[in-house]
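Hi C.,

You asked whether I'd gotten around to modeling the 147-residue construct. I have! Everything is below, sequence then structure, no commentary in between.
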Amino acid sequence: MSGAEKKWFPETWVGDIPIQYADIIVSSAEILLLYTTPKELVPAPGSGKVLEFLSAVFFLDHGGTDYAAGGALVIQTVTGDTAVSDSVAAATLVNAAADAYVVAQALSAEVALDVNQGLELTNADAVHTTGNGILRVHVAYREHDFS
């Protein structure tokens, strides 16, 4: 292969179901409220459809003041509150003393999916009491239509 040739790779598909991506910004005020007010990441797909969470890459853009207290972050279905991701420890991401990058994988165990439920980010354990900075979340997922 000469230097001018390019190798193209097909898109990732399962049957005819493409991987979709969402890019969400979680403000400092929203981070402080995640324990009581989860942040929607992907809206509900519609009747007869389920979302398959694949992974999320987080970037904490540290604002100069460390977040304190708080708990692990987890991605779950909106009203079903079914966890679909491994949890991300507060110390690893939100409470970091500098910018931080973390990936959350889909749970390795089977998960009963909730029909027509979006995905949201929540703080599963406790309120973050102080801190600033923003959190960027890149979510990879598939939408399965069984209608």
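If it helps when you're writing up: The beta strands are 13-14, 17-18, 20-26, 39-42, 49-62, 73-77, 100-105, 119-123, 133-145.

Thanks,
B.
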